Backbone:
């Protein structure tokens, strides 16, 4: 009996020495303990759990349910879902509170030096009432910046050196940004989501989706010489819910959604690849000699033609237009002639008779069409500025494109013969590129670069927005906040039911 008592005492002693974060999942295998992009979880400032975390890997969505008997007390406990990270980074998510009225619970991002109750930290938080703030706790004391908007559901916390930027919005609106300094945090930190009850009666649930932890390009990064890794994503344009289908250490670009929404076609390192959404397998598409393709590849509306832009070594590497069998082709058919200048494909007419493209002709970039049979080119725009991103509407009545002829890059449309050119977007705070018309002809999805980017450029690795507006114009709505740019959504990428789009985002690989 003495041995049994001593053994029990020893077991209790050993268990009590195990950190609480380890005890939480003692006895669970790794398949049961899936934390998505995070490494671990812990309750900080308390001895008892304050709720229960769940991760749905199919939806890539987290939920945290507060315990009915959670007692904040003087130590202000919170649940912390975290990972270790170094240097500069961007944390982004979308969250909502359900059945949690009146308790003043809050959630958001925290960056900390350690996992104890006392740590230097930066907190980007939103209360269940919808108000948000950015706080910095240091040895010098507390600093705080309130966000001047009443309802926040999208939270982005970015570290650049010792400065922390909190960008927040109600989903659908552009970000509002505040910043704060904290020189006490190390380069090596913990970063993650927190959930904190506001009263003893705290209850309800926090739903967290679109969680992204991004390592951006550094200040000395060389565009087109170095590349970050890529995420192939899909987005529900009505709800804003996103899902990462595939990630790669390579630069993958410009997905098309084809084959009754079963496949996504993308470009990488000059080749085209097919991603099967059901099997999740990737296979290379046969393109014959055309092995230096850029990201301007387009399917015809009936998917009987695949048009590509290949840098032709017989024409000093100029981008030239070809058409081929979408299933694969050992000998793509060349459409543009040698010696006329670079050509970048963007659209195929609904009757499969013409291609439209951006052409370097007469020392400037304009939009042209070319007859597939006769190879005759027709100039459709003629300005001293950049006209790009042309695409037919499904009914063939309009060509949509982007132009910086008025100072900023904005969306335009014209008749198929180039007449009746009219501007559709006007906001000077955005440079709008690559309008893609939904298959039902009702909507335009496009990418917006920040105003500090030169209007004639669409570089990689920027803090961009994907936006949506009616096909005849109107107030655009933000449908995704992304780190990407060049290659994210250069080509038509709608699903056939007009409910989803595919795109690429970027982050440095660990």
Residues:
């Amino acid at each position: 009996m003495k041995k049994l008592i001593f053994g029990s005492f020893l077991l209790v002693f050993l268990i009590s020495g195990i950190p609480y974060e380890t005890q939480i999942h003692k006895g669970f295998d790794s398949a049961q303990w899936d934390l998505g992009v995070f490494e671990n979880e812990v309750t900080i400032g308390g001895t008892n759990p304050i709720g229960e975390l769940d991760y749905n890997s199919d939806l890539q969505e987290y939920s945290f349910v507060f315990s009915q008997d959670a007692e904040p007390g003087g130590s202000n406990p919170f649940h912390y879902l975290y990972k270790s990270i170094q240097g500069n980074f961007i944390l982004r998510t979308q969250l909502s509170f359900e059945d949690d009225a009146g308790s003043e619970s809050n959630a958001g991002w925290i960056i900390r030096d350690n996992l104890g109750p006392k740590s230097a930290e930066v907190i980007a938080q939103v209360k269940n009432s919808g108000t948000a703030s950015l706080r910095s706790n240091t040895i010098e004391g507390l600093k705080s910046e309130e966000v001047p908007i009443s309802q926040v559901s999208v939270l982005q916390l970015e570290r650049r050196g010792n400065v922390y930027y909190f960008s927040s919005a109600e989903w659908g609106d552009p970000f509002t940004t505040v910043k704060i300094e904290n020189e006490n945090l190390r380069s090596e930190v913990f970063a993650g989501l927190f959930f904190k009850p506001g009263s003893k009666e705290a209850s309800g649930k926090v739903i967290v989706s679109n969680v992204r932890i991004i390592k951006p390009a550094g200040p000395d990064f060389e565009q087109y010489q170095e590349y970050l890794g890529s995420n192939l994503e899909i987005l529900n344009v009505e709800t804003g819910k996103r899902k990462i289908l595939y990630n790669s250490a390579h630069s993958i670009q410009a997905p098309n959604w084809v084959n009754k929404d079963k496949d996504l076609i993308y470009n990488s390192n000059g080749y085209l690849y097919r991603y099967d959404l059901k099997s999740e397998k990737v296979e290379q598409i046969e393109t014959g000699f055309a092995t230096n393709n850029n990201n301007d590849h387009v399917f015809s509306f009936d998917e009987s033609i695949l048009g590509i832009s290949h840098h032709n070594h017989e024409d000093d590497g100029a981008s030239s237009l070809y058409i081929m069998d979408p299933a694969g082709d050992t000998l793509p058919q060349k459409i543009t002639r040698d010696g006329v200048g670079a050509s970048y494909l963007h659209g195929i007419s609904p009757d499969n008779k013409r291609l439209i493209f951006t052409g370097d002709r007469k020392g400037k970039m304009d939009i042209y069409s070319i007859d597939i049979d006769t190879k005759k080119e027709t100039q459709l725009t003629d300005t001293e500025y950049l006209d790009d991103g042309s695409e037919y509407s499904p009914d063939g009545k309009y060509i949509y494109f982007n132009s910086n002829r008025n100072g900023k890059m904005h969306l335009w449309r014209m008749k198929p013969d180039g007449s009746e050119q009219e501007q559709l977007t006007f906001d000077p705070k955005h440079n709008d590129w690559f309008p893609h018309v939904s298959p039902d002809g009702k909507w335009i999805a496009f990418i917006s670069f920040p105003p500090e980017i030169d209007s004639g450029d669409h570089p990689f690795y920027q803090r961009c927005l994907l936006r949506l507006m009616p096909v005849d114009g109107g107030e655009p709505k933000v449908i995704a906040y992304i780190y990407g740019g060049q290659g994210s959504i250069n080509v038509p990428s709608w699903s056939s039911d007009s409910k989803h789009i595919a795109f690429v985002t970027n982050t440095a690989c660990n």
Q: What stands out?
A: The first strand starts at residue 40 and ends at 44. Residues 281 and 333 are 28 Å apart (CA to CA). Residues 37-214 form a domain with the Jelly Rolls fold (CATH 2.60.120.200).
